[in-house]
Design brief:
single chain, 163 residues, Glutaredoxin
Length: 163
């Protein structure tokens, strides 16, 4: 089974870039094999992602933003649900994978020590980071509009250079 992380390599949104880096960083730390699927350079990838995110998981405007996570063709979730699973120490279950030998996934409430949550990954303990939402004073719609403007600008530049 291959975990696929749909991302945008040339996103104009720093919030999206940070979310993508957070997901990839945690997958690396957990030593999960994954493939990056770029939706910025491949229209087929973008269309496939948009078609395969379940309707109830799509935002109000109907266009899901990266990162989106799949196990093969099975939808796992987006950034928020991925990090909810991290907080609950259920990342492998979220991904539809069995935890590595020696790692037992348990609810985060069982890991409380002196008011802090801790997780163990292959013998290493690390304090769980607080979930941070990067507020850039832009709604998702404004972020999408900004990205469309960037895409349009790139298209017009390429068109201008080709004439």
């Amino acid at each position: 089974m291959v975990i696929k992380v749909f991302l945008a390599s040339s996103s104009g949104s720093t919030a999206i870039k940070k979310k993508q880096q957070d997901v990839l960083g945690l997958l690396e730390a957990l030593k999960v094999n994954y493939t990056q699927v770029d939706i910025a350079t491949n229209e087929e990838n973008r269309a496939w992602m948009r078609e395969n995110v379940p309707g109830e998981k799509k935002p109000a405007n109907g266009i899901p933003l990266p990162p989106q996570i799949f196990n093969e063709e099975n939808y796992c979730g987006d950034y928020e649900t991925f990090f909810d699973a991290k907080e609950d120490n259920q990342v492998f279950a979220f991904l539809g994978l069995s935890p590595p030998t020696g790692l037992k996934e348990t609810p985060a409430s069982e890991h409380k020590k002196e008011g802090k949550q801790e997780e163990e990954v292959e013998g290493y303990e690390w304090e769980q980071e607080a979930k941070e939402e990067e507020d850039l004073s832009l709604s998702e719609e404004e972020e999408e509009l900004r990205q469309l403007q960037v895409d349009q600008s790139l298209f017009l530049t390429a068109l201008w250079e080709s004439t």
